[in-house]
Structure formats: C-alpha cells, structure tokens
Design brief:
The structure holds two protein chains of two kinds.
Chain A: H1 2-32, H2 39-57, H3 59-85, H4 90-112, E1 128-134, E2 140-144, H5 149-154, E3 156-161, H6 162-184, H7 186-196, H8 198-203, H9 208-233, H10 240-255, H11 260-278, H12 284-291, H13 297-300, H14 303-306, H15 309-312, H16 316-327
Antiparallel strand pairs in A: 1-2, 1-3
Helix pairs in contact in A: 1-6, 1-9, 1-10, 1-11, 2-3, 2-4, 2-9, 2-10, 3-9, 6-7, 6-9, 10-11, 10-16
Chain B: H1 14-33, H2 37-63, H3 71-89, H4 100-119, H5 124-144, H6 146-149, E1 155-156, H7 173-196, H8 198-208, H9 210-215, H10 220-246, E2 248-249, H11 256-269, H12 276-294, H13 298-312, H14 316-329, H15 337-366, E3 373-376, E4 379-382, H16 386-431
Antiparallel strand pairs in B: 1-2, 3-4
Helix pairs in contact in B: 1-7, 2-7, 2-10, 2-11, 2-12, 3-4, 3-10, 4-10, 7-10, 8-10, 11-12, 15-16
The chains are: A mainly alpha, B mainly alpha.
Chain lengths: ~350, ~425
C-alpha cells in the first residue's frame, strides 16, 4: 500500500517535471509551428546556470535568476537565428534548433567539463517530506518529515523525498501562473490572438514578432526552471539533455501536437508508468513460471524471457508512441491531424 | 510498336555520359593516387557514407521528410550482415561475401516496411518526432538484447570466409575498397535513376504540395511509404558494406548520434541537388577522421557551421557551387574574386582567433594538469597569461568586423549581379 502511494506520488512529480518541459514545447509549437529540438538543451542550461549561481548567491536566488537567464538566452536565439530562417519554412526552423542542441551541448562541456557536477538541493530539501509507517498492527501512520528511528526499527517506513514534493509544488505553481498569464492578462490575450490569427493581430497594431520572441523566451524559461529542479533532484551532467529530450518529444506527440491538456495527460501517464515500471522486477519468464508454465532451459536464458520490467522501462514511452500512432494517430487529445 | 508519322530526334546526353564515366574513373583510380592504408580505409568509408547520405536524401531532399532516426536502417543492416557473415563462417549458409551487403539491404528494407508503416502516416514535424522516437526505441532495445546486438563489445566476424572467387579473398583492404566502389557506383546510379521515375517525380510533388497531389488522385501516404522503403534498402546496403569493412558492429551504428550525422552532413553537402549528399558523405569521413583528430571541440565547430549554413545557405554546399556556376556561365565570376579573397582572408582571421579561444578554454577544462601551454597551429599559447587571451579576442574581433564589412560589400555586389542575370534571362526569353 505504502509502495503504491509513494510510487504514485513519485510518478506524479516526475510527470509534472515532464509537463514543465512539454508545456513550453507545446506553447512554442502551437504558436510558431516550430518544434524546438533544443528544448531539453535549455533544460540543461537551467541546471548548469543554477549550479554556477548557487555557489555565489545560494540556491533560492538561483532558482529565480537561472530561469530568467535561460529565457533571455532563448529570446536572444529567437531574435538572432530563428527569425532569420522563418521565411524558409518549418524544416529549416527545426534544423536550426537541431544545430543549437549540438552547440549548447558542446558549450556546456567546454565550460563545465564532461563529467557530472555536484549540485545538491539545499539543506531544507534533503530529508523526506513525510514518512508512511506501516506498523506491526497492520495500520498505516502518517508522519511529517523523518520518522523517529526507534519507530522505524519496529515497523516498515517509506519516506517520500522533500525534493519530489518541492518539484510538485513548483510545477503546480508554475501551471497556475502560466494559466493566469494567458487567460487573465492583457499580454496573454494578445498571445492568444496571435496564436490563432497572427495577421489580424498584426493589423491591429500588435508587434507579432515580438510576441513570438516573448513566447519563445517564456517557453525556454520554463524549461530552465524545470532544469534547476531536475538538476538538483537528479544529476547535473551533459547527458541530461539527451536523456530527457527524446522522452519529452514522445510526450508531446502522444498527447497530440499542440494540445496543452494532451501534453498534461501524456506527461502524467508517462511519469507514472515509468516510475512504476522501474520498481518492478518481473519478466516474461518469471510471469510464466508463476502461472505454472514450464520453460525449457534454453528458453529461460534468452534475453526476451530474462528482461525485467524495470530494465524495459526506458523504452516504454517510445512503445506508447508507436501504439498511439497506430490506434489514434492524432494523439490522446489532439484536434488537428497533421 | 507504333510508328509515329513524324520524325523525332533525341540527342545523346553527352554531358551525362561524361559525368558518369568520370565518376567511374575516380572510383577506379582513387586508390592508385592515395595508396596508404589509412587513405584506402577512408576511401572505403567515403563510399559507404555516400550511399548512406544519398539514401537519407531520398527522404530529406526529395521527399521533404526530415528523419532523425535513419541510422536504424543502416545499423540493422549492419547487424544482419555481420550475423550472416558469422553463419557463413560456421558453414550453416553458403553465400559469397560480395553478396552480403544485399542481405543488409534486405534487412533495411524489412525494417523500413515495418517501421515505415507507422512513421510515414505523418509528414512534416510529426514525422520528424516519430522517427526520433523509433530511433531511440531501437537504440534502447539494442542495449537490452545482448544476444543479437552483442552488448557493449558488439559483434565481431571475419570477412575472409568461403571459397575465394577469381582469387578475391577480401583479405586486403584494397579488395574491399573495390567491392565498395562497385556497390557505390551501382547504388548511386540506381538512386539517380529513381529520381527520374514517375514515383521519384511524384515524391518531389508530395514534398512541394501534398494537397494538390491528393487532388490529382495520389495517396501521399503510400508515396512516402514507398520512398521510405527504398531509402531503407539503400541505407541497409551501406550498413552491410560497413560490417564487411570494419568486421565489427557495435550499438553505435544504430545510435541517435549516427542518425544526427547523416542529417548534418546531408544538409551540409546540399539536399536540394542530387550530388549534394555525395559531397556530404565525403565531408563526413573527412570530419570524423581528420577534424576529430585535430581538435577535441570539433562538434562545436560542426554545430556552428551547420547553424550558419541553415541561416545563410539553406541549399548547402551544392547550392553554393551551382550558384557560382550560374554566375560563371554568364561570365560575371571574374568580378567577384576580390570579394571572395577578402571574405576568405577575413573569415580565416576571425576563425583563427575564435579557434585559439576555444582551444584554450578546452585546455583549461580537460588537461590543465599537464601545464598551461597549448599547441595551436604550431604556436605555443600560454593559457595562464592574459596576453594570449587578449590577443585571441583581439584577433577574433578584428577578423569578425572586417568580415562583416566584406560581407556587406559582397552582398550588394552579388545582388547586383543576380539582378543583371535575371534581366539577361528575361531578355533571352523575349528574343526566343
């Protein structure tokens, strides 16, 4: 029971992290038609900027400043590079962000080296947020923070890390802020207008290219924010962009390209499924054995029979992607059939 | 056979005969000119890269399909080829080594039929994302199933198996080179012929205006699917040749990095012309062998060059060549050589400065322990002293500023010449 609850929460927090990335990606895509291949590179930049800043001004200031810096870098890239190729069509736009992902990766390795850097979360977030205690009488007790050691000596304790809880809080806060910005402010209304009717918005005197730059800046800034949290929770290394990038692209296609609710649903789905899969070590072989199907000695040693669910976990998002495309080509909540 | 009532005349396309004969001669004579072991190995790799890039360009340049996972087909081709080679060595299968690349091709075709059914349902951005997903899927699976993919160590085989045919054992690299050269020539010719077929033509139409193609009664999805299969077949042949050349296949051949390299170099060579990917393939091997030897930061340079190309020359090197050929055909190239010289020299200066900076940063990052001096183009730079940093920045800024000046001047001149040429073309049309 505790396993299910904690795994579910872990999965939701991972899914929300994915959504911080996929929301920016979807926002940029539905507005400009550009799928930003370098989105995960901005995520990585966020982590490294925060790592560099936290040594000088501390984690909490870095949490605020690093996403702003990343957003500024994104806006600058839009203004100097992306805008130039806009007239050539969507493929060159995708290509230039592809080129950027190489350059950012190399620059990060140039400045911070090829191995992982130590970017721990602040003192407050290092312990567990709460602990579920499965007592000897088969009841469940909930305790904030770390449970007393003598209690855990007698009962099974399942802690939930504070970094994960913090990740959820930030993601939800960001979601609400983004929603308020888009639906409740003047600039949000202009963004919505430019999203569907760019020519009309331009005719009414709004600077649509600047709105594009703003949207690109916000989207990459969100990726940067996700990077600060992801980098401190997991590990800050040059491979982090490639590891998450492909999953995020799978998420936006599964959810339906350009659909924000779809991206949300797909992020949570992938997050939860992957988290559960990682903690299960059942394989086809062990499943067959538990049902009572006899397997020959030669078969039992085959990879197919031996591979556990946790080993297969990394490919699950892509398997989902393929299945969705076969059975529902426009994605979970997609409206347009591209 | 119906006879026409009027006289028809079809001239021999002399230019085409000359070009294809020259291509055959180059393939034939290259190992005589560059006969060192390294050179022959590189020439062989170039042949393979040319097939792979041309196969990639069947999708990218001719079909407008941006694939991020084409290494799947060449890589699986490699794996099937090397397993066939092993089977031949064990005597379970009788097949001459020279036909093993075809096994790779068939494997590539098979997986293109399988995955292409899913990927080609979409075009444009969605297609790109799905190919990326399939690429990641296969790469992740390749690390899991070590029975077939050989895990970290990969699969090794010996290409000297079976009965020698006419004394050809494929033990010396030169013999492998000539096998690759024959395959390269045939594949290039076949892929060129494909562009002239009705399918090749309708593929171009699907790239340019899919909606109209639907209106005239073609199913764009099927056109994309057919092109995808053919592209997978040729990519598989390239993979099979790679397996024979290296005698080892590791998971690296299906990695997203390899897919990215196909895309990068096909684009740099030029996707809009048939011969562009040939330049791209040659560049790929040169970059992988020489550039990576020269500097550790080569991927940074490559990425920057790629971004500049996307912004300023989206047709790649091939389009630059063709544009200058057009200027030359109108006899105006002579006016431009001063500008080209200025551009070249200032660009080189800027590059020198930037290169010195990058190399010094890399040195500080990677091997500061062995001392502070960097060997850079025969000059010793001391990365611990401010002068070298200041000097590098100064050289770079001066070069960049002068380059920008030269570029503006050149831009104006170039536009003038292009306008003149347009006028001239209009005038000739009026006369005709």
């Amino acid at each position: 029971m505790e396993f299910v609850i904690v795994s579910l929460l872990n999965g939701v927090s991972y899914g929300l992290l994915l959504f911080m990335l996929s929301s920016g990606l979807t926002l940029i895509f539905s507005m400009m038609g550009v799928l930003n291949f370098a989105h995960a590179s901005f995520y990585m930049l966020g982590a490294y900027f925060a790592y560099a800043l936290s040594g000088i001004v501390g984690f909490w200031v870095a949490l605020l400043v690093a996403p702003v810096l990343v957003g500024a870098a994104g806006a600058l890239f839009e203004k100097t590079c992306l805008r130039k190729v806009h007239k050539f069509g969507h493929v060159p736009e995708l290509l230039i962000t592809f080129g950027l992902s190489y350059v950012v990766l190399e620059l990060v390795q140039l400045v911070w080296g090829r191995s992982a850097v130590s970017f721990p979360p602040p003192e407050v977030l290092r312990g567990p947020a709460f602990t579920l205690i499965h007592t000897a009488e088969d009841t469940m007790v909930f305790a904030w923070g770390r449970a007393p050691a003598e209690l855990c000596a007698q009962a099974a304790c399942t802690p939930f890390p504070a970094t994960r809880a913090f990740m959820m809080v930030v993601a939800v806060a960001m979601l609400v802020a983004l929603w308020l910005l888009i639906t409740r402010t003047r600039i949000g209304l202009v963004i919505q207008a430019a999203l569907t009717h760019p020519q009309m918005a331009e005719a009414l005197g709004h600077n649509v290219p600047r709105v594009f730059m703003l949207v690109f800046g916000i989207g990459t800034g969100l990726a940067g924010l996700a990077g600060v949290i992801g980098g401190s929770t997991f590990v800050t290394e040059p491979a982090m962009a490639a590891a998450l990038g492909a999953i995020v692209f799978a998420v936006v296609v599964i959810g339906g390209l350009g659909s924000l609710p779809g991206a949300f649903l797909a992020s949570l789905l992938i997050g939860i499924v992957q988290t559960f899969a990682v903690s299960m070590d059942h394989s086809v072989g062990s499943l067959l054995a538990s049902v009572g199907v006899p397997i020959g000695e030669g078969w039992a040693r085959r990879d197919f029979m031996r591979l556990t669910l946790s080993q297969v976990a990394p490919v699950l998002p892509y398997l989902f992607l393929v299945l969705i495309l076969i059975f529902r080509p426009k994605g979970l909540l997609g409206t347009r059939d591209h | 056979m119906t006879t026409t009532a009027y006289y028809t005349f079809k001239p021999y396309n002399v230019g085409r005969w000359i070009i294809w004969t020259l291509f055959a001669l180059v393939l034939l004579l290259a190992p005589q000119l560059f006969s060192s072991n390294l050179a022959i190995s590189m020439l062989s790799q170039m042949g393979i890269a040319i097939i792979a890039c041309l196969a990639y360009n069947m999708l990218f340049g001719q079909g407008g399909m941006l694939s991020f996972g084409h290494a799947v087909y060449s890589g699986l081709g490699s794996y099937f080829a090397i397993h066939t080679l092993l089977k031949v060595a064990q005597g379970e299968l009788v097949l001459p080594v020279s036909l093993i690349p075809l096994v790779g091709g068939l494997a590539g075709l098979f997986f293109a039929v399988l995955f292409g059914y899913v990927t080609t349902r979409k075009a444009g951005t969605a297609f790109a994302m799905i190919t990326l997903g399939v690429g990641e899927l296969v790469f992740a699976l390749s690390l899991m199933f070590s029975d077939f993919f050989g895990g970290e160590a990969g699969i090794t085989a010996d290409r000297v198996v079976g009965e020698p045919f006419l004394g050809i054992t494929f033990a010396p690299t030169v013999q492998v080179y000539y096998l690759i050269a024959v395959y390269t020539y045939v594949c290039v010719a076949a892929m060129y012929a494909f562009t002239r077929t009705p399918l090749g033509r309708i593929l171009n139409a699907v790239r340019d205006n899919p909606e109209r193609v639907e209106f005239i009664g073609y199913n764009t999805q099927i056109v994309r699917y057919l092109a995808f299969m053919l592209s997978g077949f040729f990519a598989g042949i390239a993979g099979g040749l790679g397996a024979i050349l290296f005698e080892i296949v590791t998971a690296e051949v299906v990695s997203p990095l390899r897919s990215g390299a196909y895309l990068l170099f096909t684009f740099l060579g030029g996707a809009t012309f048939f011969f562009g990917p040939i330049i791209g393939g040659v560049l790929m091997v040169l970059a992988l062998v020489f550039l990576s030897e020269l500097t550790k930061a080569w991927l940074l340079y490559l990425g920057l060059v790629f971004m500049f190309m996307v912004m300023y020359a989206p047709g790649g090197l091939a389009s630059l060549i063709m544009m200058n050929l057009r200027v030359a055909a109108f006899g105006r190239l002579r006016e431009l050589w001063v500008s080209y010289l200025a551009l070249g020299v200032t660009g080189l200066v800027a590059l020198l400065g930037a290169g010195a900076l990058i190399e010094m940063v890399y040195h500080l990052q990677l091997n500061a322990a062995i001392g502070s001096t960097v060997e850079y183009l025969g000059v010793r730079l001391d990365s611990s002293r401010a002068e070298s940093w200041f000097g590098a920045v100064f050289v770079m800024v001066t070069g960049a500023a002068l380059f920008e000046l030269a570029r503006r001047h050149f831009g104006v001149h170039w536009d003038e010449i292009q306008a003149d040429i347009e006028k001239e073309i209009k005038r000739r049309e009026m006369i005709a």
